[in-house]
Each structure stands twice: as C-alpha cells, then as structure tokens.
Amino acid sequence: MSVVVRGTRGWVLDAHALVDRGYSRCRRTGGDNRTSHWTGRFKKQCFQMLKAHHSARADVGEGNTGVLHETDKASKKRKRKHSELNQGEIDSRAFHEKIRSVVLEGTTSLVASARSLGHLTGAPDAAKEPLPSPQCGLAALCEMAKELPSADDDDDQRDESAQPLVAEGGRTSHLDLFSRVTENEAQWAAVVPLMGGEYVIPPHAAFLLSDFTRIRPLVRCGRRFDLIVMDPPWENKSVKRSRRYSSLPSSQLKRLPIPTLASPNCLVVTWVTNRPSHLRFVRDELYPHWGLEVVAQWFWVKVTASGEFVFPLDSDHKKPYEVLVLGRYRCAAGDAASSPGTPEVPVEDQRLIVSVPSALHSQKPCLSEVLKPHVGGGAECLELFARSLQPGWTSWGNEVLKFQHTSYFTLTPTDDGAEAPGAEAAAGPTAPPEDPLPAPGGPMAAKQLTRQ
C-alpha cells in the first residue's frame, strides 16, 4: 500500500512502494532477439533510514517537540549571537516559526495514525546492504550532444513524433535520445541497453534527455499537460561544495516554456528549498511570469522508519521538511490553443506529505497519488528536471534516466512472463486504483530521446 494514511492534515506515503509501481512485469530482449521475462523491485535499502541524523532524538510520536538533545560535543560549540545572523538567516527563522506548529502538530497526528496501522514502527524490513552508486555521466553526454546537428537546423527533416523505445524485433538501436522524445508504448517495463548501460523503462513512460538548449522537441510534440511537477537544481552552498550536480540561477527558470506546455487550469508544483529568497522568487516572480496563480503551499516532512524527524525540527541548519508551491495556470485572454481544460478541483493549503526519504541524493517521493484528486484520472503529466521515470508520465532533464539504471533494481526472472506472487500490477488499463495517474494511449504524443 503506497498511501499509508490519508487525513485532513495530509498523507503518510510508502515512498518505496510508489517507486516500485510498474515493474512487476519486465521484458528484456537479448542480442539473439529472444525475450526473457522479469520482475523488478527498486532496492529496498535506499529507503532504510533507521536513525535521525546527528544522533538527535526527535520522535514526533511521543509528544517530543523535535528539539535537538545536544551531545556533549555539540554543546561545547560556540553559539552565535542573534545580532550576528545575516538577513537570510533571520528570514529563515521567521518562516520556520510561522509554519512550525503546522509541521509539528500535523506530523504528530499522521505518524500516530500510521503507527496504529503497523507502519513507522522502526522495524527494519530488509537486510543492510550498500547503496548502489553507479557513475552517472548523462549530464556530460548532454553537453557532448550539443556538438551534434540539432533537429531545429533543418525544419524539412524534423520529425515531431515520439520514437518508440523498442522497435520491431525488440531492438533499441538507432534511438536519438537527445533531440527526440522516446516512448515505451508497451504495458510492461522494458529492460534495454542505452548509451553503454542498461536501464529499466516503465510502461507508457516518455522522456527527453536534454538541457535547456534542446528542450524544443518536448514543445513541438504539441501536447498540453494537466499536471507539471518540477524540482529545479537550486543554487546553494551545499550543492557547490558537493558538486553532485550543476545548479541553475533562479532567473534561468523563466526560460521554461510553461505557458506552451500547460493546459488550462494545469496544476504546477515546484519543489523549493528552505531558503526564503527561493520561496519568494517562486511565489512573487516566477509564477506570475508564467501566468500562474499560487493556490497552496505544502510541506514534505522527512521521518525515519520509526517516525522521528530526520533532523531536529528546530535545528538552525537543516530542517526535516521541504516546501512545495502549488499554482494553477490561468490562460491569457484570447489563448485558443487549447480546449477549456480539466475542471478545477480546489487544493487545500498547508497539507503535509510524510515519508521516509530516499538515501539517494535528490530523489523525491512520487506525488501522483496525492495530486490525483486535483487533476483527475487520465491527466497528462509532466516532470521537469526529472532524474527518474514514472509509468504514464513524460519526463525531461539532463539526468532523466539516472535512477532507472539497472543497478538500482533487483531483477528476478520469471518463467512465463506472469507476475511474481504478491507483486503489484503494472500501470495500465488493468492497474489497481492506487496506481499512478493513467495516461490512455501513452504518456504524451511526444517522443523520448535515447541514444545507443
């Protein structure tokens, strides 16, 4: 069960179960064109956070406020005086105090409900294993692809349709991952060789592997989306120190063609860091620039397997929550490019999404289940700056296949292609009610880019 609790304050999610959807039936075609059948599971150890960071006790299920119980070493550190705080730190404290009770009271209630159902009890359910750590060179490949001829260079030869991931005979050769959208049209996941690696592509998933310089193929597909989720690579000191990925100046986000991609009443969801300047930029500058109206602000609360905040709630450094800003696209007057769009369903403000976070950097929980009531079934869904794929969704980014590498999955062969006992059904017409947002006929008319 991927949604453990639904309540007036929000949800408790089993993030691992959400990732696993769509992989109960996988097919791999070998060099001899023979097809083998597999069941895929995303590796459980990626979601095994048993203890809070810094040995901080922040158990929200026992009435604890989540304040750091400092160790002797931490207590000896010199604390800066309030007068030494810069304006950004002052703004961060003010924002935290404003939303603190919402996070604490809501998380306490949701965690208690989850525990009553046997979840967040702290019991490990998988053997401790090292995390997969494949080298991801997708961003570098995107840079190299800039030297290749672009589809925009020759309009007469431009193909705006999506290319199928698997051609006749089960082969994946001659795929252009960088300037055409690629789509897995099958109702099962495909295990395919791409760019010298092997990747698991969920059913009815489409993707484009590119950066801003080659986003036009996504636009030219002509599809308008009812839901757009984005997780921008915000600039901050931590990212610069870690060098995990390249960050993007906030002003560059305005280049995203949201008005061209969004259907009327499209719901746009943006993951925002806890830096107040980023939040102000999204609410006061970015969304108005795109013609979006802010309708809600939600919080993703990260807890351990026993229901503790992963960081102390009142820590001056890292907080156990992140912000999501939700907005609705309001078409400009005279915009006749789309139909009236999906009827708008009101979005409640100040809702919480509680889950055990992935140990993999920047892997956010899937939002399909919590957003489904606000966009309806059959919605066209798009993720920007994606690092993984979802069944029935279209995804774009320069590392869009990162967490689809087979090293993140446990693939178990099956005899005849039938689902393994207890496996969740794959996304598609026969999917259970909680499966990701369906996309009849494929995630979008766009095609995904893949390069052999």
TrEMBL record:
GO biological process, one term: methylation
Extent of Low complexity compositional bias: 419-429
Region (Disordered): 62-88, 412-452
Compositionally biased region (Pro residues): 430-441
Lineage: superkingdom: Eukaryota
One Gene Ontology cellular component: nucleus
Pfam families (UniProt xref): MT-A70
UniProt GO MF annotations: nucleic acid binding; RNA methyltransferase activity; site-specific DNA-methyltransferase (adenine-specific) activity
Family: Belongs to the MT-A70-like family.
Record-given protein name: Methyltransferase 4, N6-adenosine
Provenance organism: Gasterosteus aculeatus aculeatus
